[in-house]
Amino acid sequence: MYNFVDMLSHARTEMEVIRELADDEAAYRSLTASWFEHSPLLDMIKFLAAKKIPLIITTDHGSVRVNNPVKVIGDRATNTNLRYKNGRSLNYNKNEVFEVKNPAEAFLPRTNVSSAYVFCRGVDFFAYPNNYNHYVSYYRDTIQHGGISMEEMMIPFVYMKPK
Q: Where are the alpha helices (DSSP H) in 52-142?
């Protein structure tokens, strides 16, 4: 299992050196492609192809580049993910989110009796009102996951059959 691309997307948000190396989407894709071309994963794929072994490659989730902040307020127990929130007493604009008031109906875990979930759509991300401008500028144009965009929810896979 390889988790490099997911780790790189988080590092692009959190580490200044990666932010400079991959300051836009084209640079991020180039860095990802360069890693793949020099990775043991490519060597493994070539080895399996030489042995005529079919291969299926997939992922556990997709991701999306976020650009639009959406305000949300939660208590200290609310999770920190930028694309979904789970907690009690969440405050938000209902027109800006996809809400799940009864987690059991969506097959989601209920952490408390009054737990609810809200998910970002499209290219939105959650930002708290305190230090709002700082967090908006910090997370805008980063790659995130956990929301309900098509890019995150449709799981791609490829079946490769050696020739």
A: 132-139
